[in-house]
């Protein structure tokens, strides 16, 4: 026997049994693994199927969204939309799901803070639900809710741009339900579009009086839009992305709210009465956003001299800041006077202080404006009137002010700021260069001064009329025009609301 053969043994029965057991274990593990793989694979396939199905529903409801808008907003009488295959719960219409409220807060701008509910109605929804996820068309948008959250698939009919809110409210009506494959939604208009705001036949507080109609521009208070919905968090997110208004979420009530502040005077306005204020809101404090501020003043009916003693001011006071723009008659203009009207030179004074009057910045021109001659209406006689362009090119000189130069505030005993450094708005180019340091005797336009000081006092300024001691202006017959560019976001000037009702049928 060779040495290599020593110590080698033949396989025993015990070793054979061990090998058999190993094979069994391997086969068992393989079967278990295959079973687990099949189980997980089935779950994965089921999850994928659900995701695919839900994606199809989202796409179908987005198509429904665009087609419904065509019907609701008058471009089509009827639209038919095939819907994706639904699970066992299927699609159903919920006419009472959610509501929207539009309220004008403090619409009269007074301390009592009167509010007006402009619109308050249900929204309704076309809903698809599968397990814990709900997909719905509501308010002109498509939304998904799952767990405690929600998201937007396509945006609602809520459009805010350049201080204009356009809100065509789409309300879903019906009671249909359908499931499975081959579901078709038919959308028809149930009523004609109703104009909510502006509306010449509607009046604030239901008074029926034409002195406060539902009209643009919106001058006072705040406009709030509140949505109660299962998808309220997604509505709030949309409000945040579309506006810089104040957005509030009320979880306990499932509500999302956005508040937009009115810009006050915009476009043509009637002059406030003595002691009342002209509201300027949303002024851009980083630049000169006021581009037009023109006054048209008519003489008081009892003033037979037609502005021969004009003394009239707009003033504002906020914290330590004081501002006054004063207009007064400074003499007859013989070169322009006629047999019908006397033409007066009108002096203009601009006064500002951010330290309660000590020191102050003063500007004046004795002949900044001249009156004109014309009839108040088609049946009236020619009378003197004044057009004062406060954003125009009339030059004013920096100087100490006398007691005649102001009507509300007083510069007597106070010191003129000299020099006056205008470096608050570096992007603005003054006549003498950006960041100009003005000294007594320097000049600039009344337009530069008006825009500059209003920006310093912004974003909200109340300009109060002071004519009580002289009573030379008929404010009821006087008017003005105000315009600004840029300005703060989150403000509203024009409001457009319509109600649009549609019926959704499923088959």
Structural topology:
Elements: H1 13-72, E1 78-82, E2 91-94, E3 99-105, E4 116-122, E5 125-130, E6 133-138, E7 141-146, E8 149-154, E9 159-161, E10 164-173, E11 177-178, E12 184-189, E13 194-197, E14 199-203, E15 213-214, E16 222-228, H2 232-242, E17 246-250, E18 255-262, E19 267-270, E20 277-280, E21 290-297, E22 311-318, E23 321-332, E24 344-353, E25 361-375, E26 382-389, E27 395-398, E28 420-421, E29 437-438, E30 443-445, H3 446-457, E31 461-466, E32 479-484, E33 491-492, E34 494-506
Parallel strand pairs: 10-34, 18-33
Antiparallel strand pairs: 1-12, 2-5, 2-11, 3-4, 3-16, 5-6, 6-7, 7-8, 9-10, 12-34, 13-34, 14-15, 16-18, 17-18, 19-32, 20-31, 21-26, 21-32, 22-23, 22-31, 23-24, 24-25, 25-26, 25-27, 27-30, 28-29
